[in-house]
Amino acid sequence: MKPLASRFLVPFLLQLSVLILHFSVTDSSYLIYGEALTKSILFFEGQRSGFLPNDQRMKWRWNSALGDGSAINADLTGGYYDAGDNIKFGFPMAFTTTMLAWSVIEFGELMPPVELRNTLVAIRWSTDYLLKTVAQPGRIVVQVGDPVMDHNCWERAEDMDTDRTVYIVDAPNPASDVAGETAAALAASSIAFRSSDPAYSQTLLTTATRVFEFADTYRGAYSDNTNIRSGVCPFYCDFDGYQDELLWGAAWLRRASEGANYLDYIQNNAKTLGADENINEFGWDNKHAGLNVLVSKEVLEGNVYALESYKASAESFMCILLPDSSSPHIQYTPGGLIFRPGGSNLQHSTTIAFLLLVYAKYLDRSPGPVVNCGNISVGSAYLRGMAKRQVDYILGENPNGMSYMVGYSNRYPQRIHHRGSSLPSIWDHPQPIRCKDGTFYFNSSNPNPNVLVGAIVGGPGEDDTYDDDRVDFRKSEPTTYINAPFVGVLAFFAANPNPS
């Protein structure tokens, strides 16, 4: 808000603006959550790589990386840039795809038809690319682009002159994490496309089956491969082990195919692959909490009691989210935001809000719909309320009165850590902006010229502070895997703004 001339009016108007902002953000109407849903999906158009279609709505973007794969005589165009850089990292892209597909599976029926279509388009932009990465049996392309060179530049994707190195894992070298997540993404997406495009759905499922066999046969982490380690680490190393991706991939293949072999796999390997470990987070590297919630569906619906250990782990995860529970619980900021150290904190808020809603949905279908947490028990309504508090914080009900979704509300981050957003578009500056030429724009205190509508930034610190600083990438950089689960969350609240 610009300062007003009269010093006497300033205190009153500031208080009034805060009051208006509070009611405009916290008024739980369809239009507000619906607007956020629309923008959360639109964001993915700003992350597209490849040849952009005629119906591209993010008009300041243009074609980029059209030669990807030429170094190995393959077509690897398409897919998404993961964040504010120009690299295509397969590990987080596959997770992003899985979460977009899961959003459609659980909440697609609540989406307006146009937004369901847009979400399916966003999924297919990724799955078309992921199919290319596994087109050759016994091989997976895990990354395109040299991240060290890329991160030393500040240039538009349309101008890239850095090496588009292709990082490949061939059997018998292992890539269980990326291959397992890719199998999960393709299997989940096969469910999302089942009614609208049965043939494509079947292609996705058939490919997912083959990719999972590769992941399971040659077990190990892709980042342990010395041939590619310098390119994938420290950016998207496998820090938490590959075992969760094997169970995650099998669980999605079970959901997509209803195959007894995958049921046996997740049942027989629960202990050996550590299904009950590291359940205090859910994201691109650690799938345990999501795995346990996903598998719990079969237990809660009374189908497969042999998977009870997954349900127990899922409910243990729910309990650590409750501040009043006797269980050790995760950290919250003074303003009520879920917080975990390490940067890009809102990835935890969006994924956990998603799991809360999904587990609440599964609970509603079970005969005993409560979660017992020692000294307290909670039901599905309580879980939905917890999710709503995270959503409302992100959209503006927080100590800063700021929406952390770009382009939503009247106050949002203006200086996000994103090359394309912070540099003049090719329409405003047709001449190339080379590697170091963009440093001027990076260091500028001016707002970004191109609004990356719908992008959710990394978010505030543990004390709820946010400085809107482009340099502070841990707080100001958006990522696809922050947005992806939020699509499903917003679909639910757009249809149920005041859930019970």
From TrEMBL:
Residues 1-28 form the signal peptide. It comes from the Eukaryota. The lineage of its organism: Eukaryota, Viridiplantae, Streptophyta, Embryophyta, Tracheophyta. GO terms for molecular function: cellulase activity. It is an enzyme of class 3 (hydrolase). Belongs to the glycosyl hydrolase 9 (cellulase E) family. It catalyses: Endohydrolysis of (1->4)-beta-D-glucosidic linkages in cellulose, lichenin and cereal beta-D-glucans. This is Endoglucanase. The gene is AtGH9B18. Its EC number is 3.2.1.4. Residues 33-490 form the Glycoside hydrolase family domain. Keywords: Carbohydrate metabolism, Cellulose degradation, Glycosidase, Hydrolase, Polysaccharide degradation, Signal. SUPFAM superfamilies: Six-hairpin glycosidases. One of its GO terms (biological process) is cellulose catabolic process. PROSITE patterns: GH9_2, GH9_3. The active site is at residues 417, 468, 477. Pfam families: Glyco_hydro_9.
